[in-house]
């Protein structure tokens, strides 16, 4: 297969390219990190996410808003003692979206690991 012959790629692999199944809302690094960390617990503290993902408050807040607006997480504000807290939890839709993203990534890896004829 060469770059000059786009039909050659169709001969090597059948079906749509796995990257077509990636969800831009989920696939972004920080948002994928939020979803995977939230998947590991009932709810996750904002500060923990900020530390684990090495992002600023504003940056994390923006990504949480995108995920919340998409119905993939819930954001709950409250207090732990006298300290204000923000907790993030994965929704059922978020769990399904994460699962679909992981399936697409696995399909991409399988495609890349499949030996091509003539190599």
Automatic annotation (TrEMBL):
The organism's place on the tree of life at top rank: Bacteria
Native source organism of the sequence: Streptomyces glaucescens
Name of the featured protein: HTH marR-type domain-containing protein
Lineage: Bacteria, Bacillati, Actinomycetota, Actinomycetes, Kitasatosporales
InterPro entries according to UniProt: HTH_MarR-typ, WH-like_DNA-bd_sf, WH_DNA-bd_dom, WH_DNA-bd_sf
Domain HTH marR-type stretches: 20-117
Biased composition (Basic and acidic residues): 14-25
Location of the region described as Disordered in the Swiss-Prot/TrEMBL record: 1-25
Gene3D superfamilies linked: Winged helix-like DNA-binding domain superfamily/Winged helix DNA-binding domain (1.10.10.10)
GO molecular function: DNA-binding transcription factor activity
One Pfam assignment: HTH_34
């Amino acid at each position: 297969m060469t770059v000059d012959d786009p039909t050659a790629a169709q001969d090597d692999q059948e079906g749509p390219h796995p990257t077509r199944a990636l969800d831009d809302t989920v696939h972004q690094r920080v948002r994928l990190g939020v979803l995977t960390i939230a998947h590991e617990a009932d709810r996750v503290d904002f500060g923990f996410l900020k530390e684990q993902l090495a992002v600023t408050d504003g940056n994390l807040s923006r990504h949480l808003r995108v995920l919340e607006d998409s119905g993939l997480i819930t954001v709950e504000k409250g207090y732990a003692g006298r300290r204000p807290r923000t907790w993030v939890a994965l929704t059922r839709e978020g769990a399904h979206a994460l699962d679909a993203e992981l399936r697409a990534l696995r399909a991409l890896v399988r495609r890349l690991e499949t030996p091509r004829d003539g190599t």
